[in-house]
Amino acid sequence: MLLFLLMAHLPAVVPAHRRPRLRWLQAGSLPAGPHHWAKGAPRPFSSPASALKGPRLVSGEPGGAVTIQCWYPRLAINSHQRKYWCRLGPPAGVCRTVVSTNRYTHLRYRGRVALADFPQRGLFVVRLSRLSPEDEGRYRCGLGSSNNALFFSMNLTVSPGQGRRLAGQVW
Length: 171
Description:
The chain is α+β, with helices and mostly antiparallel strands.
């Protein structure tokens, strides 16, 4: 909001030849041509965070398995982005990678988690097997080099009698 307020008053404060060229931001699209982003600066996304879709509630039985489908926009840039599944907290707000497409698997999950990417469908699938009550918690499916950029969150419950049922699934 502050940026837009500044841009509204920019013509009165800064001469035209010194104004930043932010027309692409006002138009809601990315500028054409090559771009050099500052190291560590967030890059604009062409789709909102809500563009990732999948189940909000996932349930399984101890010793069983769950399969989670994570849908993302079929854009050329997304086909090359890192896909990941991470577990939230503790501490609050920190999401530790469980598995990702850059061949990382957390030690605790080795041999029982897998991630497969299907970029032509805009889908990646995570499968966690040999479930235990310790696996219960909040997780994220996401895209990008950071676990806090483009994602959706879900809750995994593990209890007897859950079977393959996904109670209260919300997309």
